[in-house]
Write a structure and sequence with these properties.
The protein is of the alpha/beta class. The chain has eleven helices and 17 strands. The strands form two sheets. A ten-stranded mixed β-sheet has the order 8-10-9-11-12-17-16-15-13-14, sandwiched between helices. A seven-stranded mixed beta barrel has the order 1-2-6-5-4-3-7. The termini are far apart.
Length: 395
């Protein structure tokens, strides 16, 4: 099968991407050289490429940016959301190699090469996004080289590699991204950040509730906001047992975002189940799904997922609509909630999927979206603030 090339390019392709359905696209390599396989998704955010690239929820996934131009403000040490990039690959219409921003410390291609992440520029991302919308998330194979004559640029070989790639549900995604070390989150800088952004802090004389965050792939901005809102934050690895979490004497426990199929995170689901009657719980994205599973609900996979910063979510109690940031491939099955002590608090206005749950008897709340955004709108920051505020009586 002949690759679909971008005729606007004035140089020969040095990278090639193949999907398991036989789609092949070519472009210019702008990152690390080599060959990779993974799941391919698209993201509709118009800004925040650095935060997206360093979001652990993208582990194992090649991200197609629908924004046509990324890399224009470079990369800096302040805007990362984890200790390293976790995307499998970056695919864009145009990746800028000469940034223009006073905060830039290096170019996006330099950053990706330094961390061994491939990138493909010059791709018709509109066509690729339409394919993914119509046919759903697929496995893909990517090769990047510095030699346009490389024998690795073989379409049929790449298609075969994509079709033989493992499914995400077969991989230990959470184990691949969690930080194995417990850590206390410093709050002074985060408190100043919140003050500058106009977000109200807890009263200075109020006790500081202790929140334990279970790191299934947590983004820095979750811990940053919790600390800035007045909580004492301890981040523990996803392997922490219920007894180990309770030994930290938390006032509340937050199960964070992360990658992969939640149905495969059996150990984390068991920990949630053990803690449900012990402490107030909050579930965010993957954490939302883990709590639902622990309570007896079922999970299903979306055709192409929710990835972007423009999803309208409605609060069913108030009717208020917030624009949210989202990054997930799985949802809670509505029919599975019948007879369970959960009520649906939020719904996605794009497709009606469940975006939030509340336990009717226990202090347990979840949201499927990312209230901390980064990148994305800040409409839902109050969700984290309400969680911290509700813990004051336990502090």
């Amino acid at each position: 099968m002949a690759p679909v090339t971008d005729h606007a390019q004035d140089t020969r392709p040095t990278g090639m991407l193949a999907l398991e359905d036989g789609t092949v696209v070519a472009g210019r390599s702008m990152g690390a050289c080599g060959q990779w396989v993974g799941e391919i998704v698209f993201n509709t955010s118009m800004s925040g490429y650095q935060e997206i690239i360093t979001d652990p929820s993208y582990w194992g996934q090649m991200v197609v940016f629908t924004c046509p131009h990324i890399g224009n403000v470079g990369v800096n040490a302040e805007d990362v959301e984890s200790r390293q990039p976790f995307v499998r690959a970056v695919i864009a219409r145009k990746i800028c190699a000469v940034p223009s921003n006073w905060r830039a410390e290096e170019t996006l291609p330099e950053y990706l090469i330094r961390h061994g992440v491939p990138a493909l520029s010059g791709v018709d991302t509109r066509r690729l996004t339409l394919i993914l919308r119509q046919r759903g998330v697929m496995r893909a194979a990517l090769v990047c080289t510095d030699d346009a004559d490389s024998a690795l640029l073989d379409a049929e070989r790449l298609i075969a590699a994509a079709r033989s790639a493992p499914d995400m549900s077969e991989l230990d995604a959470v184990g691949a991204v969690t930080d194995p070390h417990k850590r206390e989150w410093e709050s002074s800088v985060e408190r100043q950040w919140i003050e500058n952004s106009g977000e109200p802090l807890l009263h200075a004389e109020a006790p500081r509730p202790h929140v334990v965050v279970v790191d299934c792939g947590v983004k820095f901005n979750i811990a940053r906001l919790l600390a800035g809102m007045g909580a004492r934050v301890t981040v523990v690895p996803s392997t922490a047992t219920a007894d180990e979490i309770l030994a930290e004497a938390p006032d509340g426990v937050l199960f964070a975002n992360g990658p992969g199929d939640p149905r495969e995170a059996e150990a984390q689901v068991a920990v949630v189940r053990a803690l449900m009657t012990e402490r107030p719980l909050f579930g965010l994205c993957l954490g939302h799904q883990l709590i639902a599973l622990a309570g007896g609900a079922r999970i299903y996979k979306l055709p192409f997922g929710h990835h972007g910063g423009n999803h309208p979510v409605q609060d069913r109690a108030t009717g208020h609509v917030e624009i949210t940031a989202q990054n997930h491939n799985y949802c809670v099955e509505p029919e599975s909630l019948a007879g369970l002590p959960f009520e649906v608090t939020h719904v996605n206005l794009y497709d009606g999927t469940i975006e939030g749950l509340r336990h009717r008897e226990l202090p347990i709340r979840t949201v499927q979206y990312h209230p901390e955004a980064s990148p994305g709108p800040h409409d839902s920051l109050h969700v984290l603030r309400e969680f911290v505020d509700a813990l004051k009586d336990h502090a």
